[in-house]
Amino acid sequence: MADARSGPAVAVLGLSRTYGDRLALDSVSLEVRPGEVFALLGPNGGGKTTLFRILATFLPPSSGTFRIDGLSPADGLGAIRRRLGVVFQSPGLDRKLTVRENLLFHAEIYSLPRREAARRAGELLERFGLADRAADRVEALSGGLARRAEIAKALLHGPRVLLLDEPATGLDPLARRTLRSALADVARADGATVLLTTHLFEEAEAADRIAILDRGRLVAEGSPEALRREVGGDVLVLTTDGPDDAARLAADLRERFGPGAGTVSTLEATVRVERPGGHELIAPLVAAFPGRFRSATLGSPSLEDVFVDRTGHRFDEEAA
């Protein structure tokens, strides 16, 4: 949970980034509070990894700026990097070194005194359930253990902000749950702010707050619960034979039921109806439009519904 330190831990101020004529980030602004777990959620091509690389100081923005623990690039990238712990999507451990050797080598980079480095490494290995694997080479670890070792390494120098790019990618469900618990512990026990990118809804659900990015734009920001509430009521999805059928059904539905239908929209071959008590509409729809839809699915709003509501397209559609 967020702590009482003044000012945001991470402030993103009008960041844009272009690659040639492609706009990867479009004037994104957001704030991450101290001590919270914050997720950047988006599909491939949404801009989240570009934003991650800018915040990690590996990529300059085309315009705009950012602050990490109150420091901007004008204060020096070295000063920012000392406040950051960074875990990349691609493995960053030396597979031929032991877990402990990886941590101690990282300590040398940050010029930590050897006694302090050994003490800190021992504490982190214990915390992340790696003490009994400290002498094992990284190549002998499972994906979940290796990811925990990477997080331990990133925390060795006591960063204020921990950045992680798609940390759950490639992990099995149990390893993902263990990872979520470990990240919550980082925010609670270390007082560090955790900012991660993900394309997995379950990972975003576990965050204190999220920002949804799509095609370089920030389309939603808030707690998962608050964003779901904004969708409103239940979500009833009617599946038709094609986009034209969906459009005609949506128009007829609005005309037949008026405001009582709630919010009606189409997405490809489906009609989405958002209203309180969505189950009450199923029987009247079947009676009013026999044979006009192949299935009806009712559920509470999800983060995927939030994404569709804000963007008008499916989450798995990549940006061009």
Explain what you see.
This protein is 37% helix and 25% strand. By secondary structure, the chain is α/β, with parallel strands linked by helices. The strands form 3 sheets. Strands 5-6-7-3-8-9 form a 6-stranded mixed β-sheet, with helices on both faces. It has a 4-stranded antiparallel β-sheet with strand order 11-12-10-13. The protein starts with 9 loop residues before the first strand and ends in a 9-residue tail after the last helix. The mean pLDDT is 92.
Assembly type of the chains comes to: single chain
Nearest-integer average pLDDT? 92
Count of DSSP-assigned helices: 11
Low-confidence stretches: none
Task: Give the terminus-to-terminus CA distance.
Answer: 37 Å
CATH superfamily heading of the largest domain:
P-loop containing nucleotide triphosphate hydrolases
Q: How would the blueprint of this fold be written?
A:
Elements: E1 10-19, E2 22-32, E3 37-41, H1 48-55, E4 63-68, H2 77-82, E5 84-87, H3 99-109, H4 114-127, H5 143-155, E6 161-165, H6 173-190, E7 193-198, H7 201-205, E8 209-214, E9 217-222, H8 224-231, E10 234-239, H9 243-257, E11 263-267, E12 270-275, H10 279-288, E13 295-299, H11 303-311
Parallel strand pairs: 3-7, 3-8, 5-6, 6-7
Antiparallel strand pairs: 1-2, 1-4, 8-9, 10-12, 10-13, 11-12
Concise structural overview:
The chain has two domains: 10-227, P-loop containing nucleotide triphosphate hydrolases (Rossmann fold), CATH 3.40.50.300; 233-300, Alpha-Beta Plaits, CATH 3.30.70. The mean pLDDT is 92.
